[in-house]
Write a structure and sequence with these properties.
By secondary structure, the protein is of the alpha+beta class. It has one domain (34-251): Alpha-Beta Complex (Nucleoside Triphosphate Pyrophosphohydrolase). Helices cover 24% and strands 26% of the residues. The protein has helices spanning 18-25, 89-95, 101-119, 136-143, 204-207, 214-227, and strands spanning 34-43, 50-56, 67-68, 71-73, 124-126, 146-148, 154-160, 169-177, 196-202, 236-242, 245-251. Strands 1, 2, 3, 4, 7, 8, 9, 10 and 11 form a nine-stranded mixed beta sheet that branches. A two-stranded antiparallel sheet has the order 5-6. Strand 10 and strand 11 (245-251) form a beta hairpin. Mean pLDDT is 85; it is low at 1-13.
C-alpha cells in the first residue's frame, strides 16, 4: 500500500435526521469524541470477501437505520478483561502511538466484545478465564470456555466523527479474516440484537446497495486498499474534520 490512500472527495451527502440536527443545535459547543472500536470481519477470498454488517435500529438517536460494522464505545471493563493472543507488532505500534499498551489492547478487545453484543458471535480461543471482569459480555466468553482472542486483528483506519453531530467518536477500525479452513466451511452463526438488525454477510457489490453513512462508505474504500496488498503500511488512513472541512491524513504521522 502506498503512503496515501486514494479516497474520492465525493462520498454522497451528509445524512442527518431532523432529530439529530435538533440535538446538535441544542449544544453550545461540539462534544468531545469518545474512544470507540469497530471491526470488519471478512470471510472468503480477499478480492471478493463477505463482510459482516447489520442495520442500526430506527430507534437510535445516532445514525438510525443505516448499515454498519459491529462496534461501539470502549468501556472500562475492556482494560481488565482476560484475553488470549496478542496484537501484531504493526497494530501495537500504531495503537500505542495514541494510547498506553493497556489502553491499546482495550481498544482492540472492545471490538470483540461489541461483536458479541451486536451479533452473538464469540471471537475467542479455548482456555479457562481466571479474571473477573464484572461484565456480562465477557462472562459470556468465560461461560463458553473462551477468552477473547486478539490474534489476527489488524488496525487499518481511524475516523473521528465531525463536530456537527451531537455524538462523536474517535473510532479505530480493525479487520479480521475468519479462518474457516476451507472454501466450503460454513459461516459462523450470527443473530440480530437490540443494537443491530438484519445481521448478515455481504459482498462489496451487495453493500453498495445498502443504506450507508459517509464514514462507512469511506472506510469500505480504505478496506479495499488494505486488502489489495500483502504488506500493509506501518501507518493507517486517518479522517477527521476541522470545522466543516473534512481532512485525511496518515497515523501515526511520519
Amino acid at each position: 500500500m502506498s503512503s496515501k490512500n486514494t479516497i474520492p472527495n465525493s462520498l454522497g451527502e451528509i445524512s442527518m435526521t431532523d432529530a439529530e440536527r435538533a440535538k446538535r443545535k441544542a449544544l453550545k459547543r461540539a462534544v468531545r469524541p469518545r474512544i470507540a472500536s469497530t471491526i470488519v470481519l471478512i470471510h472468503g477470498p480477499k478480492d471478493n470477501p463477505k463482510i459482516l454488517m447489520g442495520q442500526r435500529s430506527k430507534k437510535h438517536d445516532f445514525m438510525p437505520s443505516v448499515y454498519v460494522f459491529p462496534g461501539g464505545r470502549v468501556d472500562r471493563a475492556d482494560s481488565y478483561a482476560d484475553y488470549a493472543g496478542d496484537l501484531s507488532p504493526r497494530s501495537a505500534h500504531i495503537l500505542e502511538a495514541a494510547f498506553t499498551p493497556r489502553k491499546a489492547r482495550a481498544v482492540a478487545l472492545a471490538a470483540l466484545r461489541e461483536t458479541y453484543e451486536e451479533t452473538s458471535l464469540l471471537l475467542g480461543r479455548s482456555g479457562p478465564s481466571t479474571r473477573n471482569s464484572n461484565n456480562t459480555s465477557y462472562d459470556a466468553f468465560r461461560l463458553a470456555g473462551l477468552k477473547p482472542d486478539l490474534s489476527g486483528l489488524e488496525v487499518f483506519g481511524r475516523a473521528v466523527t465531525p463536530p456537527h453531530r451531537h455524538k462523536r467518536f474517535d473510532a479505530w477500525f480493525f479487520v479480521k479474516h475468519m479462518d474457516t479452513h476451507s472454501k466450503t466451511s460454513p459461516l459462523p452463526e450470527i443473530a440480530d440484537s437490540a443494537e443491530l438488525l438484519n445481521v448478515g454477510w455481504f459482498t462489496f457489490a451487495q453493500i453498495k446497495k445498502l443504506e450507508l453513512q459517509r464514514a462507512t462508505k469511506m472506510m469500505l474504500q480504505v478496506l479495499e486498499h488494505y486488502l489489495s496488498t500483502d504488506n500493509p503500511s506501518p501507518d493507517i488512513f486517518y479522517s477527521y474534520a476541522v470545522g466543516d472541512n473534512y481532512k485525511t491524513d496518515r497515523f501515526p504521522p511520519r
